[in-house]
Amino acid sequence: MSDKKIAVIGAAGRMGREVLRTIAATPNCCVGAAIENEGVSLETLNGLVGDGLLTDNLVRGLEQCDVAIDFSAPAGFDSILDALQSEPTPIVSGTTGLSDTQMARFRLIAETVPVLHSPNMSVGVQVLLELIDVAVKALGPTYDIEIVESHHRNKKDAPSGTAKRLHEAVREAQRKLLSREPNEIPVHAIRGGDVVGDHSVYLMGDGDRIEITHRATARRTFAVGAVRAANWLIRQPRGVYTMKDFLGA
Question: Which fold has domain 123-216?
Answer without folding.
Answer: Dihydrodipicolinate Reductase; domain 2 (3.30.360)
